[in-house]
Write a structure and sequence with these properties.
Elements: H1 5-15, H2 22-37, H3 42-110
Helix pairs in contact: 1-2, 2-3
């Protein structure tokens, strides 16, 4: 049975990934071989689609967990930057205030 274009597209998309899972690799090689021979039956298609679903749903969950972790870390980092910026502003105002006092002192020491 000739493969439909959607299956060929799916196989090409999956083939572009560096797959580390042994079962998914075997399914990928099997469907690629079946496509080469033009012998893709309904059972092979079903097995392949099931393997792709299992692998990529797991991959998707992992990627989403990673994104949540990165977002949480970015939020923390942004809060640290905000706090440090505010702290810097306070330090600058202290310097300006102390310099004003020291300038006034220098002026008072210079007057008789």
């Amino acid at each position: 049975m000739p493969a439909d274009p959607e299956l060929r597209d799916l196989v090409a998309r999956v083939g572009a990934f560096h797959i580390t899972d042994g079962a998914m690799k075997r399914e990928q090689r099997a469907i690629e071989a079946a496509l080469e021979k033009g012998e893709v039956d309904a059972g092979a298609q079903h097995a392949y689609r099931s393997a792709v679903r299992r692998y990529f749903e797991s991959f998707d969950r992992e990627a989403r967990e990673h994104l949540r972790d990165v977002d949480r870390r970015l939020e923390h980092t942004n809060q640290v930057v905000f706090n440090l910026t505010a702290e810097r502003g306070v330090a600058v105002k202290r310097i300006e205030a102390t310099q004003a006092v020291l300038s006034a002192l220098a002026g008072a020491e210079g007057s008789p």
